[in-house]
């Protein structure tokens, strides 16, 4: 059975009103909301800026953030031989996304990895983990172990970063999401592949002129089959179309370009980067 600890990151106007009523709207109030109430916009402070609350938190994972996100920290039995993290979509109400973090294969017991803090700014989710190792005199099991931890998410952030308390950023080993990640409204898709395997990069244009892309591996059972299985292999954001093309080239999908609802007209990647025709 999974061992879970449910946490919430949220800032609502109602909760803020209660907090301000008890705190007397003092300057020492930590993590004030940006929302306005009937008395006007409160002065902004952050947890780091507030000097009034110096008490050490009993649970570092419960630190609040400025955006809304629900999550559960889980204890899992790891199996990954590689060090890094996975993003997986699961069929579970309320928490459909898992981030599984692994220290990799270890030669003995006594190793551990734990989530120490979670911060979400509305776009980037940063998970900080701490890895520990047995001491020279500690009694450990003489067997291969795979220290792992995990967190369930209510939504899928635009970006995920996993860092250790030592300042090292862990790499994403794989992303396995369902078709729900491929939302409507994409500008174009960059494709490469023949036969039974296609690599695709779906491109979305953001309101600020930047781009979001989603890399997908699409497979079918045989040539000419109408049913394809799409697996998301990663996503990201890019400042320019050239950056999108570079990401597609790294993924292996940088071949030709198609537009939504028009699979007859084929464009080149150069036409895409130059902004020609679309």
Keywords:
278 residues, 2 domains, mainly beta, 6-stranded antiparallel β-sheet, 6-stranded mixed β-sheet
Provide structural commentary:
Helix content is 10%, strand content 39%. The chain has 278 residues and is mainly β. It has two domains: 3-176, no CATH class; 179-274, no CATH class. A six-stranded mixed beta sheet has the order 1-2-7-4-3-10, with no helix packed on it. The protein starts with a strand and ends with a helix.
Summarize the structure.
This protein is mainly beta. It has helices spanning 13-23, 241-251, 269-274, and strands spanning 3-9, 69-75, 83-89, 97-103, 112-120, 124-132, 148-153, 159-164, 169-170, 172-176, 188-192, 197-205, 211-219, 229-238, 256-259, 262-267. 10% of the residues lie in helices and 39% in strands.
In DSSP terms (H or I, runs of 4 or more residues), the helix count works out at 3
Helix content: 10-25%
Query: What would the average pLDDT be, to the nearest integer?
Result: 79
Whole-number count of domains? 2
What is the radius of gyration computed over CA atoms, rounded to a whole number of angstroms? 23 Å
Quaternary assembly: single chain
């Amino acid at each position: 059975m999974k061992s879970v600890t449910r946490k919430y990151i949220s800032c609502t106007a109602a909760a803020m009103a209660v907090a301000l009523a008890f705190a007397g709207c003092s300057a020492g109030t930590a993590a004030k909301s940006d929302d306005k109430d009937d008395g006007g916009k409160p002065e902004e402070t952050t947890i780091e800026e507030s000097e009034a609350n110096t008490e050490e938190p009993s649970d570092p994972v419960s630190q609040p953030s400025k955006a809304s996100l629900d999550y559960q920290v889980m204890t899992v039995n790891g199996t990954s031989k590689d060090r890094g993290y996975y993003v997986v979509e699961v069929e579970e109400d309320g928490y459909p996304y898992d981030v599984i973090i692994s220290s990799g294969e270890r030669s003995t017991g006594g190793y551990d990895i734990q989530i120490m803090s979670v911060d979400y700014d509305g776009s980037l989710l940063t998970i900080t983990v701490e890895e520990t190792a047995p001491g020279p005199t500690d009694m450990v099991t003489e067997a291969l172990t795979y220290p792992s931890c995990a967190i369930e998410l209510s939504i899928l952030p635009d970006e995920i970063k996993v860092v250790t308390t030592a300042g090292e950023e862990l790499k994403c080993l794989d992303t396995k999401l369902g078709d729900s990640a491929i939302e409507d409204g994409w500008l174009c898709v960059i494709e490469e592949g023949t036969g039974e395997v296609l690599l695709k990069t779906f491109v979305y244009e953001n309101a600020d002129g930047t781009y979001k892309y989603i890399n997908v591996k699409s497979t079918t059972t045989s040539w000419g089959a109408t049913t394809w299985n799409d697996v998301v292999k990663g996503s990201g954001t890019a400042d320019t179309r050239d950056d999108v093309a570079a990401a597609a080239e790294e993924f292996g999908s940088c071949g030709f370009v198609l537009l939504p609802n028009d699979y007859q007209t084929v464009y080149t990647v150069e036409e895409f980067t130059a902004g020609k025709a679309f």
